[in-house]
Amino acid sequence: MKPVWFKNAIIYQILIDRFSGADTSINKPDFLGGNIKGITERLDYLLELGVNTIWLSPFCKTNKYHGYHILDYKTVDKHFGSIDDLEILIEKAHENSLRIITDIVPNHCSVEHPFFIEAKYNRNSKYYNWFYFKNWPNDYLCFLNVKELAKLNLNNPDTRDYIIEIAKYWLSLGIDGYRIDHVIGPSHKFWKRFYNEIKASYPNCVLFGEAWGAGISSAYFETINIRNKFFHKIFGISQESLQKEYYGEMDGILDFRLNEIIIEAVRKGKGFTSDNEFRYKIKKHFSKYPEDYYLITFLDNHDMNRFLMYCNGDYDLLLETLEFLLSTNKPVVIYYGTETGMFNKMQVRSDLHHSDLYVREPFDWCNINYKLYNEVKALINK
């Protein structure tokens, strides 16, 4: 069952550690103090903006400020607050007709997760088969080439059932759905099982994936489970076909291909959204997908350059593009700070460690560009 409420969702993406409560005087790859309680305190700001859905970064116990290195899937990390704080946020959001979705990270966990530690030091442990050891104990599959993230074996029934149970647990507390991290990692067989079991219990929740092929060379193909690997090895991963793979296994997919088309076109400057060639490309792109498959549109996120960088800081160009996204009648994601003009002057680069910090700055509540905020608000509420 497709959640009808999600069709016109205006989603505000929040990196918990950087949004509210963070130390704004520094920006380093460590916890800066942003927390769930701080988000609850800023609900009026989000409601005024006109968003109707909040997307939270992972809040489970972790050893990294961004939350994607999971240490315990069933515990709220103390840096972010408590389970009570989460339940209060959900309650207050729902009282104001705001939905709450969150990241779920099923493909991998931190190598400091107790399950992996046990598997690494005891080959007879039941957790040994929860991972992919090529040559035990130090050679194992991971998230691409990131050795601190061990890949979970979701084709193992116990591992599969555990992750599905975790997903159901957070939904039972009132979470309205998931943005699923790195969906290209687990198998299609797993996703069919996951989708059917979750929907049987929570038919109105939304499940959408991140299927991003950029920068993934054939050297990493043993860590992912995409179709037509031979074709992709020869010609490179087709983002268009990659996104289509998950129809029937997800309610929708983050539209990275649309993002590519927009970034390519924005270099032409203001007025590009009215260009006939651009309009044709967009129409052709959308025509390749079933109407009941949500394409989630966005300008940027926590892993890529902020869109304003491509606009060279031109707010009018940002507003024109956002107006176009809002006109597509599809879910739209606004990354925290876009509405106040936050953007990076230095590029995010895969070969530069921690360059993603350029797009993960703490939100500066003392210096909000309310002129831009009000213009974004006017577009959303148009």
Supply the helix-strand structural class.
Answer: alpha/beta
Instruction: Specify the biggest β-sheet.
Output: 8 strands, parallel, barrel
Q: Give start-end ranges of low-pLDDT stretches.
A: none
Order of neighbouring strands in the sheet with most strands? 1-2-5-11-12-13-14-15
What fraction strand?
Answer: 15-25%
**Annotation, overall tally of beta strands:** 15
Distance between the termini: 29 Å
Please state the CA-atom Rg, rounded to the nearest Å.
20 Å
Oligomer: single chain
Backbone shape? globular
CATH superfamily of the largest domain: Glycosidases
Instruction: Tell me the number of structural domains.
Output: 2
Structure write-up:
The protein has 382 residues and is of the alpha/beta class. The protein has two domains: 4-104 and 156-380, Alpha-Beta Barrel (TIM Barrel), CATH 3.20.20.80; 108-153, Oligo-1,6-glucosidase, domain 2 (Alpha-Beta Complex). Helix content is 34%, strand content 16%. The chain contains 14 helices and 15 strands. The protein has helices at 16-19, 36-41, 43-49, 83-95, 114-121, 157-172, 188-201, 229-235, 239-244, 256-266, 276-286, 307-310, 315-327, 370-380, and strands spanning 10-14, 53-56, 60-62, 70-76, 99-104, 108-110, 133-135, 139-140, 142-143, 146-151, 177-180, 206-209, 252-254, 294-298, 332-335. It has an eight-stranded parallel barrel. A three-stranded antiparallel β-sheet has the order 6-10-9, with no helix packed on it. Strand 11, helix 7 (188-201) and strand 12 (206-209) form a beta-alpha-beta unit. Helix 13 packs parallel to helix 14 (370-380). The longest helix is centred in the middle third of the chain and has 16 residues, at 157-172. The chain is globular, with a radius of gyration of 20 Å. The mean pLDDT is 97.
